[in-house]
TrEMBL record:
This is Spermidine synthase. InterPro entries: SAM-dependent_MTases_sf. PANTHER family: BLR2883 PROTEIN, THERMOSPERMINE SYNTHASE ACAULIS5. Keywords: Polyamine biosynthesis. It holds the Pfam family Spermine_synth. Gene3D superfamilies: Vaccinia Virus protein VP39 (3.40.50.150). Transmembrane segments: none annotated.
Length: 214
């Protein structure tokens, strides 16, 4: 049985938080966006990126989601300061004070975490901050974006913008619910070192992670 816990008018349309048994789901404009059933690939996105960076990494996480990536970053000994950019205030509220808080053991209260309520594309354009690791999980993939405006992040100009926010030797990590060979090709054209991981899921095609070093 599925229970609707909250429905709000978000910046990208209607957002719904619902409970399905012991798990939570977030629906955006009627399209499934995320849930708390597994989260293995979301955790690996940040842990593998951190493994690839020497020392204490300053990390940017694009997209708060259900907090799995943030929790994994906090638990990784190689991660120091973490900046999370999330444009939907409802998602932040569900994680900070709502039912998602217990999913990640109140990760937002950790003093190492700064949450920025902003559209990631717009924020990247105006910021001068740089990071050792930038982990991108704001869409279901480069060709399955939540909003049309996000698509530019995965094109040549967007990859240039992301690379500019990395420190020397920094790593870009990208999450996807599907394989996108054309995006992998663009990554390899922009970055000298690219690694692709496929993570099996209970149903459907495996999740895909890309890691590109500047």
């Amino acid at each position: 049985m599925t229970d609707v816990l909250d429905t709000v008018a978000g910046k990208s349309g209607e957002l719904v938080l619902r409970r399905a048994g012991d798990d939570f789901e977030v629906i955006a404009n009627g399209v499934f966006l995320m849930d708390t059933r597994n989260g293995e690939s979301e955790r690996l996105l940040v842990s593998v990126a951190a493994d690839l960076v020497p020392g204490k990494a300053r990390m940017l996480i694009g997209g708060l989601g259900v907090g799995y990536s943030l929790r994994a970053a906090l638990d990784h000994p190689g991660v120091g300061e973490i900046v999370v950019v999330e444009r939907e205030p409802a998602v932040i509220g569900w994680n900070r004070e709502g039912p998602l808080k217990d999913v990640h053991d109140d990760a937002l209260s950790d003093e190492r975490v700064t949450v920025v309520e902003a559209d990631l594309v717009k924020w990247l354009r105006r910021t001068e901050e740089r990071f050792d690791a930038l982990c991108l999980d704001i869409d279901n993939g480069p060709e399955w974006t939540v909003t049309d405006g996000n698509a530019k992040l995965y094109r040549e100009a967007g990859l240039d913008m992301l690379a500019a926010r990395l420190r020397p030797g920094g790593v870009l990590g990208v999450w996807s619910a599907e394989s996108v060979p054309s995006f992998a090709k663009r990554l390899r054209a922009r970055f000298g070192e690219v690694r692709e991981l496929k993570i099996p899921v209970p149903q459907g095609e495996p999740d895909v992670l890309w890691f590109a070093r500047r």
